[in-house]
Amino acid sequence: QVQLVESGGGLVPAGGSLRLSCAAAGRTFSPYTMGWFRQAPGKERVRVGTISWSVGTPYYADSVKGRFTISRDNAKNTVYLQMNSLKPEDTAVYYCRAELSTARIWGQGTQVTVSS
Fold first, then answer.
1. I want to staple 86 with a disulfide (CB 3.0 to 4.6 A). Which of 4, 71, 95, 114 is the partner?
2. Tens of pLDDT, residues 67-115
3. Which residues contact 42 (CB under 8 A, 6 or more apart)?
C-alpha cells in the first residue's frame, strides 16, 4: 500500500514563499499523475496543480499561475510545490494526490497560512 506524506507547510507573511513536499512510501510507485489540491475553511477542495509522472508536464490553476511551480523527483518518489508571492487567499490545507491505475491516494494534508 502506498502512503503519501506531505511536509513544508507553515505560517508565512504575504509575499513570502514556501515549498511543500510529498513523498510516497510503500510498494513500487508509478502513478500517472501527481497533484496538489487545497481546501480553505468552508470551501470545496480544488486542484492547484498536477504533473505527469513520466513526462513531467505541469498543469496549474489560473489562480496560481506564475506564482507556483510543481516539480517531481522520480528517483525519490517525491513531488514538490514551490509557492512564491503568497497571498492571504492561498491559506488552506494543501493535499497531495497520486493517481494510480487502480486508485487515487491522498496524503494527510499540511496547513499553509498566509498572514496579511
1. 114
2. 999 999 999 999 999 999 999 999 999 999 999 888 899 999 999 999 9
3. none
Beta carbons of 95 and 45 less than 8 angstroms apart: yes
Question: Which residue's C-alpha cell is 477542495?
Answer: 45
pLDDT tens, position by position, 59-78: 999 999 999 999 999 999 99
Lookup: cell for 58: 505541469
Q: How far is CA 47 from the centre of its chain?
A: 9
Nearest CA-CA partner of 79 in 24, 28, 26, 30: 24
